[in-house]
Structure formats: structure tokens, C-alpha cells
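Reopening this one. Same input as before:
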Amino acid sequence: MEAIFTPAILLSLKALSAVTKSLSALFHTAGRKDAAYKRISGRLEQKQEKLTGLYGHVDLICWLEYTGTASCRLCALPKRLDCLLHEDLWSSGRPYLLTSATLSVGGDFSHHMRQTGADLLDRRRILAVSKASPFDYRNHALLYLPEDMPFPDVRIAAYRNAVTDRLEELIRLSHGHTLVLFTSYRTMETVHQELAGRIEDVGIFIRDNKPVAYFTDGE
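Same output, byte for byte:
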């Protein structure tokens, strides 16, 4: 994503930020008695603050998020969240419960605590427990590693087609009892659209941003 912020684009962002700031001040001065002008000035000020954050992005992680077939938005998050989480959440005095299969490594929570700022708290306020899974993996799980798949690259149609074909086989073998996880919304939508046209005897649902109730209300 660093390629987005070339020197030319950084100069453009700074120039756009300066123009937006000037416009905000102009509308503010001209609209002291006009509520509409004040609203425009406020919106321009917000845009200027966002532009300033973009060209001063050294401490930010930036990425593009597709919002449609031909549109996207630029998103940003701080690289370090430990102090922010400590200030906004952990030091508030409220109790919090965190559960996940990836909070600890071999029962050690130190890495997660450093990343989230929990290590800044008094250790007497923290109760950390790691429990083994009750699921009988040895007798009820099978690790399947296909050796005939193309190199994983979602930008290549041959790989996407191979994933779709293999998923169709696995879904039919499991009689539809299949949960497929993706790291890309775009790939998930593409594969879902293709499988929904191939497999009509079982329901093919896509989770995306729908609430859980969307899938359970009809039960």
C-alpha cells in the first residue's frame, strides 16, 4: 500500500489539504450569520483533518477497501493500538472479557497483552486462563492438504477457478455441511456467485456483513 503515497501524491494531498483549509476559513468568515455556511465550513474542516492524517501517515496502516465493482475507499488504522486501548478501554474501570483461540501461545498471553496494552495494567486486575479444546480432533477431524492446486493468487483466474471446482467437490461430499473461510470479501463473493449457480440442491449462503439472525430466523 506504500506505493499509493508516491512523492507526487503526497504533494497533491498537501495542496488539497491547504485548499480545503482555506475554503473552510472562507465559508466560516462569510457565513457567521448563515447556518448553511457554517455547516459547509465544518464539513470542509473535517475533510482537511482527514487529508492531514493521510499525508502524515507514518504511524498508520493504510489499505484500500472495495465498496463496489468500480469504487473503493481508503482506510487507516494506527500501527500501535496499545496506548489507545489502554486509555479508552482498560483504564476505564469497567470489566472486560476477551475470548479467542488465538489469545495465547502455549498458554502464554504476554504477546497479546503487549499488543493490546493490557500489560500496562496492574497484573492483579487481570485473570488469564487457557483451556484445551474439548473437541476430539483425533477421532473426529481430518486434515486435507491438496497437492494439485495452483499457487495461491486470487488475482489469477486459474487459481480462483480451481478453488471453486474443489469446493464444489467437497461440498457435495459433505452433503452441504461445509463452512468456507476467506481472507478476501471479493473472492468470497465471486466464489459464492459461481457455486450458487452450480449447486442447487443445498443452500449456499454468504455471511459477509449480515447478522446471525438472518440465517436462523427461518429455522
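So the earlier flakiness isn't reproducible anymore. For the record, The longest strand covers residues 60-66.
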